UniProtKB/TrEMBL annotation:
4-aspartylphosphate carried by residues: 55
Positions of transmembrane segments: none
Name of the protein in question: Response regulatory domain-containing protein
Organism: Jannaschia helgolandensis
Domain Response regulatory stretches: 6-117
InterPro entries for this protein: CheY-like_superfamily, Sig_transdc_resp-reg_receiver
Keywords annotated in UniProt: Phosphoprotein
Example GO BP: phosphorelay signal transduction system
Length: 118
């Protein structure tokens, strides 16, 4: 369960964002977002967050400024991406940041979030 944990969701595909939001809420999480752009996600970083799920490509922009901010603030996150160049993510953030390839099942995302939070 993700009871009472505040999870930021950054996803620009509306249906996927809705599905992920519902999955996280069913697990007891409070969802911040979803945010579909880098700018709105950066504004959301000012809130108290326990973890985040980040799509890498947001309307043609990389989510890296958001990931950098979360990383600096000590907020764990998981990348949920359709990108084929995963080496770029690993070289930038290391092997400790989980990467799930879309479409990952909701259960996989919840399992990763649980491991990041405990």
């Amino acid at each position: 369960m993700l009871d009472e944990h505040n999870i930021m969701l950054v996803e620009d595909e509306a249906l996927l964002a809705l599905d992920l939001s519902l999955t996280l809420e069913e697990e007891g999480a409070q969802v911040t977002g979803p945010f579909a752009t880098v700018q709105t996600a950066l504004e959301g970083c000012g809130r108290k967050l326990d973890a985040a799920v980040l799509d890498v490509d947001l309307c043609g922009s990389n989510v890296f400024p958001v990931a950098d901010r979360l990383f600096a603030d000590g907020v764990p996150f998981v990348f949920h991406t359709g990108r084929s160049d995963l080496a770029c993510l690993i070289s930038r953030y290391g092997r400790d940041v989980p990467i799930l390839v879309k479409p990952a099942r909701g259960e996989e995302i919840v399992k990763i979030l649980r491991s990041l939070l405990h």
